[in-house]
Design a protein that fits this description.
The protein is of the alpha/beta class. Helices cover about 40% and strands about 20% of the residues. The protein has helices at about 5-15, 45-65, 80-90, 130-140, 155-165, 175-185, 195-200; strands spanning about 15-20, 25, 30-35, 35, 70-75, 90-95, 110, 115-125, 145-155, 170-175. The strands form three sheets. The chain has a six-stranded mixed beta sheet with strand order 7-6-5-8-9-10, with helices on both faces. Helix 3 links the parallel strand 5 (about 70-75) and strand 6. The mean pLDDT is about 95.
């Protein structure tokens, strides 16, 4: 079974995926969603945590082998980013959503040499706004962001365009389409719920309003 399906099954098995169309979840962006994916649950399952870290490491090595430093996006990707950096024996830094309002006022925490090549690890891509904000913060430090790897993406058209416009190469272990296919295959959701989930996928900013 290919990585996309394996990781999708992991997320379903550990209850990382929640489905509730009657009482939709509200994202930070204000969007309403019938589905929610909480990848932080991976950290509580040692065997899956190890496999996900291995898959992310493999993706970095295959796609961004020249990277000298690994960066994780706070807070969801700090732990897994650290595991990837450890497996690759590379320095690790993490990026806050915004600079601290006290102390040194840092947004990038850790030591990264100016001009070095950095790969970013993310847990989940939705609109892409916070992920690309982290790339921007790193670029302002004078480093070269070679690209990004993530566990999961909703594959929104808006997000794909944002990454293309920012010239940031993105590779994910699994995605929304694979997730719902596997959810049907293992009876996590019903066939009758598929149309609703597809409608939301193609117009998430309008759904539920």
């Amino acid at each position: 079974m290919e990585v996309e399906k394996i990781v999708a099954r992991y997320l379903l098995e550990i209850g990382a995926v929640k489905l509730n169309p009657e009482n939709p979840f509200t994202w930070a962006s204000g969007w309403k969603s019938p589905i929610y994916c909480d990848n932080r649950r991976i950290l509580s399952y040692p065997e899956m945590r190890t496999k996900i870290a291995e898959f992310l490491t493999q993706s970095v090595q295959e796609n961004f082998g020249s990277a000298e430093t690994v960066a994780g996006v706070a807070t969801g990707a700090i732990a897994l980013g650290t595991l990837v950096a450890d497996k690759m024996q590379k320095p690790f830094v993490y990026v806050r959503p915004k600079p601290k309002d006290h102390g040194m006022g840092a947004q990038v925490e850790g030591v990264v040499a100016e001009g070095s090549r950095v790969v970013v690890v993310e847990d989940l891509i939705s609109t892409g706004k916070s992920s690309l904000s982290a790339v921007d913060a790193l670029s302002k430090q004078g480093v070269q962001v070679t690209g990004m790897v993530a566990i999961f993406s909703y594959n929104f058209d808006h997000a794909r365009k944002s990454f293309e416009d920012a010239n940031v190469e993105l590779h994910t272990l699994t995605n929304y389409d694979t997730l719902i296919e596997e959810a049907v295959a293992c009876n996590y959701i019903k066939e009758s719920e598929l149309e609703l989930l597809r409608q939301w996928r193609y117009a998430p900013d309008k759904w539920g309003r």
